[in-house]
Amino acid sequence: MTKKLEQVWPQDFAERYRQRGYWTGETFRTMLAARAQEYGDAIAVVGGDQRWTYTELAQRADVAAAGFLALGLKPGDRVIVQLPNIAEFLSVTFGLMRANIIPVFTLPAHRLTEITHFARKSEAVAYVVADKWDGFEYRTLADSVMAEVPAIQHSIVVGDAGHHTAFNDFAANPPLLPVEDVDPASVALVQISGGSTGLSKLIPRTHNDYLYSIRASNPLCGITPDSVYLGALPVAHNFPMSSPGIFGAIYGGARVVMAPSPAPDTAFPLIEREKVTITGLVPPLALLWLQAAPKTGHNLSSLEVLQVGGAKFMAEAAKRVRPVLGCTLQQVFGMAEGLVNYTRLDDPEDIITDTQGRAICTEDDEVLILDDQGNAVPEGEAGNLLTRGPYTIRGYHDDAAANARSFTEDGFYRTGDVVKRLPGGYLVVQGRATDHINRAGEKISAEEVEDHLLAHPQIFDAAVVSIPDDFLGERSCAFIIPDGEAPKAASVKGWMRKRDIAAFKIPDQIVFVDEFVTTAVGKISRKELRATLRARLIEEEAAKKGQP
Ligand code: AMP
Ligand code: DBH
To answer: Is 356's C-beta closer than 6 angstroms to any atom of ligand 1?
Structure first.
């Protein structure tokens, strides 16, 4: 028996969210069908040399759905999807949803260790990858995943499939039989958390709640049928997927352009050619774009909105967006668990540059800012952000310990972020209470990386911390107490690489130390330890910089 995959709000909340029109009963399947009706001949997606109209996208989703069902997959099954920014991202995803099969979205950067964790935790029965991407062989990864997780019965490859199941052969299947309509309160897809403690957790999102966040995002981000959204960040991530992202674009009858890379030399020609109007970036990429734009020969004048989020965008950089790129900046502070804040496109310039926006749902995104004792802090003072609302989850999948930690008894999600609130509900992110590293928008759990390091035969103990970084925002630094003679830092990094984990989790910096500080009683929490080590390194680096 597989564990039930669900996301349930208490009855009174569910009723309220329905009554107020947030949850409409629409599903991804009915949504796409309606768009194909209304915008049939308009181009829905551009990726590589593919250009599909809405009619074609819906047809391709039907073909994909028939193919998945012909393999023996059943409604309610879970499928790991690991695809880059290609047109097929949408035909695979809508195909799965068309058949009421639930996609579990992983990032192209994930490797065997992460994929097997997601596969086991979600009890997935199939795995969809592209053949090769960015120099990496996903078919080989698929072989390893299948060998380690026997419950995965099918590996489906977009492109040259080798001995795997070819997604491109799905077209040979008999057409789709009618599929039963799905309950809009059921889970449509699974997102993954950045993992503030330990391994990443699974985030089940329902049709009702996810579609609400998309539908409500569109007007705040200026999406109309004339919009062209560039998928620059990996589109499996919650931000470019839903804020408003590729789904917002499809919801609005607009166009998605898939960029194989967010680098200016790839993205700028696409902006010019496809007349892109909106895209979303993490702060380090926004800095790169600001640097490259004045020198580019490409015409970027179609760009109306540049969204920046995933990590804090500093005000000084934010101020340069309009003069350099000639478009409106939209700061986006969101989380795969739900709550998304946007600066509004017509906000005064200082709100746009100095805040991370305000919640989508003015009436029913409940935002609390509390001190460590749980008391509300006065407006303008920093505190812990907790939230509850029509698209914020009430629990992770199958993780009682994480749920006990991350949710209050009355269902508020403890975001782990420290924020202050300005008049009008605008939030300014000040920092965070949890020990993860936000490396250019990729969240890395200190604990997860420490666990890997502790498996090294020459490492006695390790503490991983975030260090402020001019470009990345934060980088990761591992403090290591060697067991005997210290290994070389490069060899520790090389060894980490062989652990089959996403490259962004490999420590940027390694510092060997003889011992960790302890308090008078000889005990120190990991949290205090990390804080002390971090403070000391920052101080030492500042002292070094200060020297002539
Ligand atoms: P996740 O829970 O993995 O989806 O990551 C969401 C987290 O990313 C938030 O809780 C914040 O810590 C961080 N984050 C997202 N957007 C911003 C932003 N605009 N400014 C600062 N931090 C952000
Ligand atoms: O960082 C995030 O997870 C994020 C950022 C902006 C997000 O999930 C979102 C918008 O929806």
So the answer is: yes
- The angle subtended at Cα 347 by Cα 344 and Cα 351, nearest 5°, is 100
> pLDDT tens, 51-71?
999 999 999 999 999 999 999
Residue 527: CB atoms within 10 Å = 12
Q: Each residue of 461-487: pLDDT tens digit?
A: 999 999 999 999 999 999 999 999 999
Where would I find the H helices in 135-206?
A: 138-148
To the nearest whole number, what is the mean pLDDT of the chain? 95
CA–CA gap between residue 287 and residue 441 (Å, rounded): 13
Please determine, for residue 194, whether its predicted confidence score (pLDDT) is greater than 90: no
> Which atom of ligand 2 is closest in space to residue 310's alpha carbon?
1
Domains in the chain with CATH codes: 207-434 (3.40.50.12780), 436-544 (3.30.300.30)
Cα separation values, 399 from 201, 203, 526, Å: 8, 11, 22
Question: Which residue CA neighbors atom 3 of ligand 2 most closely?
Answer: 335
The reported pTM is 0.96
CB atoms within 10 A of CB 143: 15
Q: Which atom of ligand 2 is nearest to the CA of 336?
A: 8
